[in-house]
Design a protein that fits this description.
Elements lengths: L10 E4 L18 H17 L3 E8 L6 E7 L6 H18 L6 E6 L10 H6 L4 E8 L2 E12 L3 E8 L2 E8 L3 E6 L4
Helix pairs in contact: 1-2
């Protein structure tokens, strides 16, 4: 059942009973990359009709209810009307196909100044910019912030500063937990 849209920021609540396409895991469960890719394929035509591109899609299963977050962009930037239009269009598609079996929130927004970096191509576009990278380092996560120096097939290189010296750190993509652009201060 689709609840009345409440565009607060750029989110509209959405619930769907599980009767359609193979359901997405219940709340607080991880969403597989395949399931998220399937959902992305379903909504791409709606985004094109609305005149925007998909920058990225995320499933945030730790929130209550879980959140399907779509980040959109277009030349000249995204405004609240774009987010509202996309939210309504995508909600209708997801309600018709029922790919998610439990209650969740649909959130549509621009990636923002500190946009997340999901794909290798996004990392490539960020070359030379300041980035924040959280990566696995043994049993713990480490966070570094610095200029993105290089992006290879399987790793990236970030310039780091320690006290008065500058160096670089190579991080394998397989170890990256999350990354984003960082605002220059």
């Amino acid at each position: 059942m689709l609840l009345p849209p409440a565009v607060q920021g750029a989110a509209a609540p959405l619930t769907t009973p599980g009767t359609g396409v193979a359901p997405v895991p219940p709340p607080h469960a991880e969403l597989s990359n395949d399931a998220l890719a399937r959902i992305t394929e379903l909504v791409l035509p709606s985004l094109t009709q609305c005149g925007v591109e998909l920058y990225g899609a995320e499933w945030v299963g730790q929130s209550t209810p879980p959140t399907l977050r779509l980040l959109i962009e277009k030349p000249g930037g995204v405004n609240l009307d774009d987010c509202e239009q996309v939210s309504h269009a995508v909600a209708a598609v997801l309600d018709a196909h029922d790919p998610i079996s439990s209650a969740y929130t649909l959130e549509v927004s621009s990636p923002g100044a500190e946009r997340p970096l999901f794909e290798r191509e996004q990392w490539l576009r960020a070359l030379g910019f300041r980035v924040n990278v959280r990566f696995r380092n043994g049993e713990a996560d480490t966070v570094v912030e610095g200029r993105l120096l290089a992006v290879g097939e399987d790793a990236l290189e970030v310039e780091i500063r320690e006290r008065r010296s500058t160096g670089s750190l190579r991080v394998a993509f397989s170890d990256v937990v999350e990354g984003r652009l960082a605002v220059e201060i």
